[in-house]
Structure formats: structure tokens, C-alpha cells
Specification:
Elements lengths: L11 E6 L8 H12 L7 E2 L7 E2 L4 E7 L7 E7 L8 H4 L6 E3 L6 E3 L9 H5 L6 E2 L6 E2 L5 H4 L12 H5 L5 E5 L6 H8 L16 E3 L14 H4 L8 H12 L1
Parallel strand pairs: 1-11
Antiparallel strand pairs: 1-10, 2-3, 4-5, 6-7, 8-9
The structure holds iron/sulfur cluster (3 copies).
């Protein structure tokens, strides 16, 4: 059993806007790129160009079609990575102390040299946010790009998680939820930011902004004029053209 800190000085995390995410997967690719080349063991792939490719990712985007009681169906793209829970069961279940939550900023990390690949943390995480790297035999998870956000070698505008820096839709935001005046705290408060599965009691730090309902058109069917049946007998100019062509 590994202990969690009673409290953390900061609560760094992400706000993900489900209203503006377009499911482009740019965050998935930039996450894989950064985390394969930098902190810890690379994120391996198995049979990447074969019939059944698989691999390790710290961030995945799932897409769902949602049909409301009234109105049109809506496609919701749902990016998912570790939520850096305050009451993280993946940490308390770890038998070696490899999984831990940092006191200074609340980031949940894995010390890979102490990880024995037992998979207990993946079993304990209710969000499926941990992946065992098949080639390396160690547990991987979102690091909140800890090696970018404090990295003095990077230009200041790059000292945010790779997924946040990359998202072309501006759907991902990074900051400190312990500060009620931070941009992420205000955004979550203004837009009704949601915890994922609060009934699990994990107190995730990340927040999701719910998708707004699509504009209703008041019963007007925009496609109706285009779908109207075509007259079997041409009239007007087309009738003249038809007759002219018949004579040729
Ligand atoms: S989302 Fe899962 S892996 Fe991340 S801190 Fe919570 S329980 Fe642990
Ligand atoms: S914060 Fe970093 S490690 Fe986490 S999902 Fe984003 S890019 Fe991946
Ligand atoms: S990069 Fe942004 S818009 Fe694209 S899938 Fe990720 S969160 Fe959504």
C-alpha cells in the first residue's frame, strides 16, 4: 500500500471542452510523440504496420453518437487520459510505492524503476487511464507532461502539456485548480465543468465541459427543397430544351 498526501499545494490538471473537441486525435499523436521521446521508457507499439496493430497511449479519444429525447443526434468526442485524482486508488493499491502523488502539484506519476508491472493500478483505476507497456513491462500513464511544464529549456509558451499546445480547436486547457482565480477554475465554474464518474469517490482534478445542445431549427427541414420529387414532364426552359433536343 502506498500513501496519498493528505493535501497538495497545487492541483494541476486539465479542462477538456467537449463542445469544441472535433475528435481530430492531434492530442493523441502529440502526447505519444512527446512521451515516447522524453520522460521514462518509450511508449511501444506492437505490429504497427501489420494486420492487428496495438500500442501504448497515454491519451485516447473515444467518439459516441448521442441521441437526445428531442432534437437531432449529436457526435461527442471524448478524450480520456489520467485525471490526477485526489483520492487515487491506483496509488493506494500499488504494492511497491512506484505509483505516487506529488505533494507540490498533485501530479500522479509512476517511478518506472520500482514498477514490477503487476497491473494492480490498472485494475484499480475506474477510468482505464493506465496502460501496461508490453515491451517495457512497466505501467504508463499521463504525466501531465511534467517534463515540459517545468522545463526551462523550452520557450515559455511551450511549457504546457503537449496535448494542450497541439489541440487545434483550443479544447484543452491546463492550470491550477487549487487557485479559484486560475483560468481553468473560472472556466470550469462558468461552464459547469464536470467530474468524471463522481460516484467512484476518486475526486478527479480534471474537468469536462459538457457539449452545448445544437441549435434547433424550429422544425424546418433544410434538406426538404433538395429532396422534393422532380417533375416527370419538364416545363419552361427545360421543356423547350427537351423538345429541341428531340428534333436533332
Ligand atoms: S485517473 Fe486512474 S490512473 Fe489517474 S489518478 Fe485517477 S485512478 Fe489513478
Ligand atoms: S498532459 Fe501530456 S501526457 Fe497527459 S495526455 Fe496530455 S500530452 Fe499526454
Ligand atoms: S486535439 Fe483537441 S480537438 Fe483534436 S481530439 Fe484532441 S482535444 Fe479534441
Amino acid at each position: 500500500m502506498t500513501e496519498l498526501p493528505a493535501t497538495t499545494t497545487r492541483k494541476l490538471g486539465l479542462v477538456i471542452d467537449l463542445d469544441t473537441c472535433v475528435g481530430c486525435h492531434a492530442c493523441v499523436i502529440s502526447c505519444k510523440g512527446w512521451n515516447t521521446e522524453n520522460y521514462g521508457a518509450p511508449l511501444s507499439d506492437q505490429d504497427p504496420y501489420g494486420a492487428e496493430p496495438s500500442g501504448t497511449f497515454l491519451n485516447r479519444v473515444h467518439s459516441y453518437e448521442v441521441t437526445p429525447d428531442s432534437g437531432t443526434a449529436q457526435l461527442v468526442h471524448f478524450p480520456k487520459s489520467c485525471l490526477h485524482c485526489e483520492d487515487a486508488p491506483c496509488v493506494t493499491v500499488c504494492p511497491t510505492g512506484a505509483s505516487y502523488k506529488r505533494v507540490e502539484d498533485g501530479i500522479v506519476l509512476v517511478n518506472e524503476s520500482d514498477c514490477i508491472g503487476c497491473g494492480l493500478c490498472a485494475w484499480a483505476c475506474p477510468y482505464g487511464a493506465r496502460e501496461l507497456d508490453e515491451a517495457e513491462g512497466v505501467m504508463k500513464k499521463c504525466t501531465l507532461c511534467v517534463d515540459r511544464i517545468y522545463n526551462d529549456n523550452l520557450p515559455e509558451e511551450d511549457r504546457v502539456p503537449a496535448c494542450v499546445r497541439t489541440c487545434p480547436a483550443g479544447a484543452r486547457h491546463f492550470g491550477d485548480f487549487a487557485d479559484p482565480e486560475s483560468a481553468v477554475s473560472k472556466l470550469a465554474a462558468e461552464r459547469g465543468g464536470l467530474e468524471l464518474m463522481p460516484e467512484q469517490g476518486t475526486r478527479p482534478v480534471n474537468r469536462y465541459l459538457p457539449p452545448r445542445p445544437k441549435d434547433r431549427l424550429g422544425g424546418i427541414d433544410l434538406l426538404a427543397p433538395l429532396l422534393a420529387p422532380v417533375a416527370e414532364e419538364p416545363s419552361g426552359f427545360f421543356a423547350w430544351l427537351d423538345k429541341t433536343l428531340d428534333r436533332i
